[in-house]
Backbone:
């Protein structure tokens, strides 16, 4: 029997994880599957034919160590998916700047390498700011996951939290964006692609008095059929990335000028298999196609 790994983390008890829905279709396709933490010691990756990066949702706490593990897997005889090169590229949100330079619409972003107290007001009002009329902004690290160290702030709140912001972002790459109101009024769309084929889509709307769309924060999530223009935006992103992927989750928000890409999640996105009963089988079919191509 072929052996594969679902790469995860030590403790997922605080998260909603749906990778177990892959086990039965993987077994039926001839795969014996183990879930292993990326922090596990002395794992012989040569014992496996495939390692799928799925739920290592604490990697941002030690990014260098995480990449080192991915490199060890890639150096073994196991096939690593998604590919290491694309995960290294995707780990820093500067990838959004590269996509924007190639014609992908993103939320206007100010990219910063460090922070000083005098910078904070300019995020709202400076001539060089991302949006002179912004009433609220979002500040987050360029390497982050799951809304980790993410702030939604008015100017008054930013001034009040000045000390905390200086501590959080001192000598750290971060990004500043205007808060997009549609996140609250409509939500964030996520489109899922397996081996570059569309699988399903969901709409995530935060609960009252929140802006975070992750289900761990109580957001409302529904399956949706993406409108034509949204799907076209997603497929344009994939064409610009131009790399064969086992999985991609593309997150969008509606703006006054159309859809804007929030994230291209290519490392460890939740794939929300629970919202489409056929999606685990589609995923396993994608695995099978990709492994067969490796044999050619």
Residues:
């Amino acid at each position: 029997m072929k052996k594969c790994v679902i790469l995860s983390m030590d403790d997922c008890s605080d998260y909603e994880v749906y990778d177990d829905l892959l086990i039965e279709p993987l077994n039926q396709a001839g795969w014996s599957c183990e879930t292993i933490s990326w922090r596990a010691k002395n794992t012989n990756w040569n014992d496996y034919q495939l390692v799928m990066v799925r739920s290592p949702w604490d990697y941002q706490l030690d990014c260098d160590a995480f990449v080192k593990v991915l490199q060890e897997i890639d150096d073994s005889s196991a096939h690593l998916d998604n590919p290491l090169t694309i995960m290294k590229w995707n780990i820093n949100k500067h990838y959004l700047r590269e996509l924007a330079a190639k014609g992908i619409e993103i939320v206007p972003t100010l990219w910063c390498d460090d922070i000083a107290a005098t910078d904070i007001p300019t995020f709202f009002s400076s001539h060089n700011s991302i949006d002179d009329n912004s009433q609220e902004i979002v500040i987050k690290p360029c390497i982050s996951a799951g809304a980790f160290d993410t702030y939604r702030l008015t100017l008054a709140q930013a001034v009040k939290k000045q000390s905390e912001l200086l501590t959080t972002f001192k000598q750290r790459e971060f990004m500043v964006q205007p808060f997009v109101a549609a996140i609250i009024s409509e939500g964030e769309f996520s489109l899922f692609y397996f081996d570059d084929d569309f699988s399903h889509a969901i709409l995530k709307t935060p609960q009252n008095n929140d802006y975070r769309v992750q289900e761990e924060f109580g957001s409302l999530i529904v399956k949706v059929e993406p409108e034509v223009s949204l799907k076209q935006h997603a497929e344009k992103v994939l064409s610009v990335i131009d790399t064969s992927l086992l999985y991609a989750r593309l997150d969008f928000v509606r703006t006054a000028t159309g859809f804007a890409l929030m994230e291209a999640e290519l490392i460890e996105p939740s794939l929300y298999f629970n919202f489409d009963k056929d999606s685990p089988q589609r995923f396993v079919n994608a695995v099978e196609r990709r492994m067969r191509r490796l044999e050619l």
Remarks:
- The chain has three domains: 2-90+284-295, 94-105+182-272, 110-178.
